[in-house]
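Example 9 (inverse folding). The structure is encoded as follows.
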């Protein structure tokens, strides 16, 4: 990823969130890349997302920026002249608007908010799907954006466990964490079916991964806790038989790599964060919506059983067999079991 270009006009995009947020924003980032081909596109995001940002092919440079939770950073370490264009892909304001406006960009693209009347953007719809939301905002400014433009290239790194079913029990909040005992039941049944099962976890999820591995009797070679580097994680996901997880970054990475997924939703509905409609992606959801920041697994998430997950994986196996004969269709709606 290149350094700051001298004299080159710059687009600054604020999306200082997590991996799943970055991947959901890929269609908007690529639309901005096409709209401003001669500009340096700078993404304000956590530094650890730099490899993922590079993989999108849309970002020239990451400007490290983050804050606890999903908060807006206090400041941006921006140097040189003001951005020619600043784009708020972080939220609907006003804190994110004001952060960017302090840099005095020549142009600001953002959603409208009553507390920042100087921002003449489109209205914000709370129930809109995340990928469509940012594409709609850009279209309101005359920038063509396709929410389906989210695929990532296959990583050059070899997979550490090709053909395995990947279980990812962690998530950004306890409300989105399906119980480890249920993942254990899924892992045990899959191994009885002859599948290799591996478990992954983020940098702060080592204990959770170790507990699942112990309960399921997984060998050390099939345990990837402590946060894999992005290239290895992407390779593992790209060559997986399927990925089972909650609504978290690994689910979005699997979608970007066209890997079959079974995603367990709750407390947020798949209509807002779910995968594209395609038979290789199964979204399990019972509803209703709840508190995404809750300290316990959400009741909607707890309504999903290991039997449902195993049934969904069985459906993916059947579709895989059909796909080998060219009979797999293109589109299918996420289903409510």
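The amino acid assigned to each position is listed next.
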């Amino acid at each position: 990823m290149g350094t700051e270009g001298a004299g080159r006009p710059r687009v600054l995009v604020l999306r200082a969130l997590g991996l799943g947020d970055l991947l959901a924003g890929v269609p908007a980032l690529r639309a901005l890349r096409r709209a401003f081909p001669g500009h340096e596109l700078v993404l304000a995001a956590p530094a650890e997302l730099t490899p993922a940002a590079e993989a999108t092919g849309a970002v020239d440079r990451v400007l490290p920026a983050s804050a606890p939770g999903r908060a807006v950073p206090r400041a941006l370490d921006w140097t040189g002249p003001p951005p020619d264009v600043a784009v708020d892909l972080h939220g609907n304001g006003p804190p994110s608007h004001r952060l960017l406006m302090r840099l005095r960009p020549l142009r600001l693209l953002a959603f409208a908010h009553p507390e920042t009347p100087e921002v003449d953007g489109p209205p914000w719809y709370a129930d809109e799907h995340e990928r469509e939301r940012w594409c709609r905002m850009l279209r309101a400014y005359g920038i063509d954006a396709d929410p389906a433009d989210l695929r990532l290239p296959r990583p050059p790194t070899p997979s550490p466990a090709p053909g395995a079913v990947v279980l990812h029990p962690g998530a950004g909040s306890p409300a989105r964490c399906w119980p480890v005992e249920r993942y254990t039941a899924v892992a045990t049944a899959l191994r009885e079916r002859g599948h290799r099962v591996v478990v992954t976890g983020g940098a702060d999820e080592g204990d959770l991964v170790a507990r699942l591995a112990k309960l399921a009797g997984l060998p050390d070679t099939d345990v990837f806790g402590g946060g894999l580097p992005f290239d290895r994680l992407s390779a593992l996901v790209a060559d997986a038989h399927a990925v089972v997880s909650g609504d978290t970054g690994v689910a979005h990475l699997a979608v970007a790599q066209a890997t079959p997924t079974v995603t367990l939703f709750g407390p947020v509905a798949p209509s807002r964060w779910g995968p594209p409609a395609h038979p290789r992606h199964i979204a399990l959801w019972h509803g209703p919506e709840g508190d995404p920041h809750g300290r316990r697994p959400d009741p909607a998430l707890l309504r999903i059983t290991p039997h449902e997950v195993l049934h969904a994986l069985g459906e993916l196996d059947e579709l895989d067999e059909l796909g080998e004969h060219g009979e797999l269709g293109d589109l299918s709606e996420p289903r409510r079991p």
